[in-house]
Design a protein that fits this description.
Chain lengths: 316, 384
Amino acid sequence: MEVAQFCSTSHVVIVAGKGGVGKTTVTAALAVAAVRAGSSVLVVEVEGKSGLPTMFDRPSLSYDEADLDPGIRARFLTPDAALVDYLETHGMKRISKRLVSSGALEVVANAVPGMKDILVLGKVKSLDESRAADLIIVDAPAAGHAVSFLLSPRGLVDAVRVGPINKQASDVVALLSDPARCQVVLVTLPEETPVSELIETAYAIEDRAGVALGPVVVNQCFAPPPPGLNGSQAVAKVLADAEACGRFVSEREANDLAHAMAFRAERQRLQHEQIVRLADRLPLPQIRLPFLFTPDIGRPQVDTLASALAHGIEAL
Amino acid sequence: VSSITSLVADHQVLICCGSGGVGKTTIAAVLALEGARQGRNTCVITIDPAKRLADALGLESLSDTPSSIERDHWDYDGTAKPDGALAALMLDTKSTFDRLVTGNAVTPEQAQRILDNRFYRNVSGALGGTQEYMAMEKLHELHHAGDFDLIVIDTPPTRHALDFLDAPRRLLRLLDNRIFRMLMMPTRAYLKVASVAVQTFLRTVARVVGSEAIDDVVAFFRAFEGMEAGFRDRAIAVEALLAAPDTGFVLVTSPRRDAMEEAEFFAGKLDTNGQTIDALIVNRVHPKFGDESPAGLRATAAALGQRSDEAARRLAARYENLADFREIAELERAHVEGIQARVGAKTIAYVPYLSRDVYDFAALHEIGSILFAPADGSPDPAAV
């Protein structure tokens, strides 16, 4: 599938997964890949401190849209700001100020669960309706929260039967349950626990929230060791190869060479097991992104991952 | 004796915090296991809905009471002190909240009215906020009961991972809210006293969420009549427990830049709250694999790569691979440089990235044996 085609499958892509698997990294890579394919992108952050602006070397995000990169805009949607925004655009400007200043907002938000989520998702819906960008990417909250985040509109449709919140919730349910408008891209690491959690989340999202699932992104995959290096990585073998090609390698260096390769081979083998398990348990196409040997995700790394992601999409 | 060993020995409560995916749950389990090995009656609480600790500890479902773990699992070599015991609990937010309501209600009927209220049912099951508060509630409950010498608690996997610190105060703020207080008044007094502000509030909210919802909300708040003091006392007690000298904070991070930034952010928030970080644990540090420079290794790889014989190609691939690992090792070590001072942690420890995944007791032991090695005390990531 062409990247451009993927980007027009649904205008809203929600990127979800457990904490630490690289949701924000995948969000950034998808944004860059989409721009390269000619789409304009709006990234929506919904939770706390995001690493996204740092990746593009920009200051932190606010409710108002900001340019992140050519073709990529981003904003941070907080429930409070989304509610004020909603009231102001629906002829209740004076009320919105009073709601905030009286502390009533906090009472309402605490008393009506899902209210915060619906405010944010309602804003995403209106951004989608106004065609704010060719592609809107939502960097969702961490896994457990992602499920409740996506379930709350359904809950609210039942709990609040009339009024604008009901209308808002119904509209959001319509958006979420239409695969032509919205899909969820789940992100995981090829490790036991994240994979188990991803499978659980996937079924919960599809069965209970009724949201279509796109491909699964498996982040931080090691490439298999080159041919001939997959088996035993004994120091003796390193020394034998060194001797065969007439190069002096100290015992210590041979040890490091052997252990580093054994470490990679072992991790790659375990990762492969998990990738296979994921494929068995969850019938969704997978896109694998490479492990990058750096603790920093900056612009160059996002570019590398965007290429890998595009490659993965093309192979779908 | 390592400083992490005494961290476990000297506290009654250990709170593991840190951003998602850094291995808080694993570290909490490792600390609890050590507590048991030291001969203490230990309980580990996880509030993770994704059941991560369950994977490690063999727990199958949420529970309201701790279940004990067979000695064989945590005393693998029979060297643990005889008095030790290990129990684990996976927080059931809803039943903890139900119990709190039942325990504070003036009459059983009042408790039932609340438990049956539609909004209560939503609030008590919801993840955000409630979960953090109930975690602290459960911690207090277990601590107060006094059955355990040591309780290790894992914090929720949100990016707002410190919400649990604010949880008691958030409830107090809610109880102090003028409108909430008005709503809690008995029906008639409420009608008489309700100020213009409250009327306006109710009308406003009704315009947004519908009047039916308002009825539920008002009924919910009103059902709490008389329970306010109980809740307030409890919130104050939980705050006191968090501030107690034998409650320790363990900040868990990984050497990745985003995790380190969040760790510093957490440290700042903890400091504002008047809490000190008793230990910083840097988890998942890549092994060092010697000390050669990545550039030199890559040059060797490139030179060998020019050749066509199999042995040279294999050797080139090994050099390239070692260069990759040396590079990440150096970058990670540069990141952690000075982190102990930056977060103001009393002690620091490093846990290596194992070549295998950590989800069973064998792996927990492996990490424990590194963290609690008698010779530790070396705050040098080179040691891992």
